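Rotation project, supervised by the postdoc (A.L.). Task for the rotation student: set up a whole-complex structure prediction and record inputs and outputs verbatim in this book. Inputs entered:
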Amino acid sequence: MSVTPMGPDVVEAETVVSDDSSDVSVEQAIAGRTPWQLAWARIRRDRTSMVALVILVIAIVVALLAPIMVAVGLLKPYETHQNLVQGIGSIPTGAFGGISSHHWLGVVPGTGWDLLSRIILGITLSLLIAFCATLVSLVLGTLAGLISGYLGRWPDFWISRGMDLVLAFPQLLMLLALSPVIVDRITKFGVPTGNPSRIVYLIFVLGFFGWPYFARIIRGQVLSLREREFIEAAKSIGASNRRIYFKELLPNLWAPILIYFTLNLPVNISAEAALSFLGVGVQSPTPTLGSVLTDAASYSTADPVFFFAPGIVIFILVLSFNLLGDGLRDALDPKSSR
Amino acid sequence: MFAFAVRRSLAAVVMLIVMSMVTFLLFIASATDPARIACGKNCTPAQIADVKHSLGYDKPIYAQYGLFVEGLVHERNFPDDPAIEKNAPQTIVHCSAPCFGYSHINTALVSTLIAQRLPVSVAIAIFAFVLWMVFGVLSGIVAALFRGRWPDKLLVGLALIGYSFPTFFIGLVLYQYVALKWQIVPVPEYISIFHDPIGFIRGGILPALTLAMIYIAGYVRITRAYMLEAMGEDYLRTARAKGLTERKVIFKHTLRAALTPITTIAGLDLGALLAGAAITETVFNFNGVGKLAVQSAVNGDLPVNVAIVLIAATFIIVANVLVDVLYAYIDPRVRYA
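Outputs recorded:
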């Protein structure tokens, strides 16, 4: 998993540095490469990261196409097939949960919904929720980290205490306890009751509890960046704070932001599934990976395909994001020892 | 050192007070009307107003908070109404300190509900803690010693795989397959460790393992990282140069430096877990605080939720203080002014 930059890379990295800092004319043969190109070259050589990346690209393409496929009738996540289920508990007819040429992963016990359709649309919704929640954490955390790290003094004091406070809350218990209270409020704002309100709840509350993690990392980076010459230069020509935040500091923070975005996403995918299981997340018939797996929980031995399929999809997504995140960290920040 | 401990504790108390205010505000200012739940389904608006008054939910929010805090150190009565006390004293529930309120859904005192369930949660948390410390830390040490070779990759990989499955999925697989279908271990149930230690281990092994699974991955990585960091230190070269055996170098010099930061992380994680593991307790049907939290969330039982969040937060904050102070003791490099 870990990639140590080898010979040629190190030489190139040094070339880039000397490009920046000296006027010595560089020979044509040595092409300077941006840090991004270097990172990409390292990722390319890391087989684990590449496999994870390919899996995730496929998953994201499928997720984006799923609503279109539902619209044109390729996927039918809500169409019931009572003729395909039978007996006590309405277990699917046929081997392996009723796998057939029409239903590649079989059908759901009870209703006869097509399992593959539900899992594919579930990937879309789960990724959407996780992505938006992570984005909320990222925006809040980056703003807090920038302000707190750059201004120091009392803004830093209060933002840091705020972080301590949020981190001291028992997250899962808080998510459970807040759900009746906040879902109610969201419904009053005009969001349709039930699953749409719950999705909004998940995005904002998961997002809210995630911001201190981003803020801590950004703050740490800003603390060292703000002592650098280019910030001093920007200040001396009278740049506004806003300009320093977004034009000077932020472009230097993309590496940690990207790494922690990739590592935070799988946390939210798992959280969505867990909250669905605990009864405060998205519920059937709306398919998310969590709600499909929750439906399957009572059929774990009676219909193993139904139970294991969504579980393994979640596993593959979470594992891929984690592996890619690790790979990105190795590639973008080779000095870090983890 | 002493001054540091005092200052840190004072900060923790302030934090707890702020936390209790935020929690109380979030919940009590909610749209769900506790009086309606207390009164039952077939209540006229006039009856609801009556109940609201007798329970004190019509008071301004700061007054309600005041009563709540007062209850923590002093006894309260539910409903706290002199008229009812005179006419029907048998309907009044007496709540001695620390009083967290009264759950109308469970028709019981919140403190009683939690006190019944806390031992279950604490026992499972400690069992899981032992498992993840043993497996996680040992694997991390082995991984660091075999850095880059197959044991390293295998252990780190296995830990990551365990971490990537949803907790309730692992729990269900262990419960439904290992216990019920294949009957490798007895059906999980909570037996007090003081009653029957063997029964406790047999009944609690699966929930504890489920819970430990999430942490093992993290501990393998952290231990490995700290080990590698410690192995690069100069004093190890000194130790080798003066002729110590490799075993002594690893066990006496490297491990001590590597494990010190891990104790602090472990303390924090254990503190956060003591007030209940909602998912695991729900999967294995253990009547712990976590399961109570899930039930209360689904039923909208606000007093119970407020109490559980506050108790859990207290555990976390106390663990923070203890760990900070402990760290200054065990790591001679840390000096607090």
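Student's summary: The mean pLDDT of chain B is 81.
Supervisor addendum: The first helix of chain B runs from residue 2 to 28.
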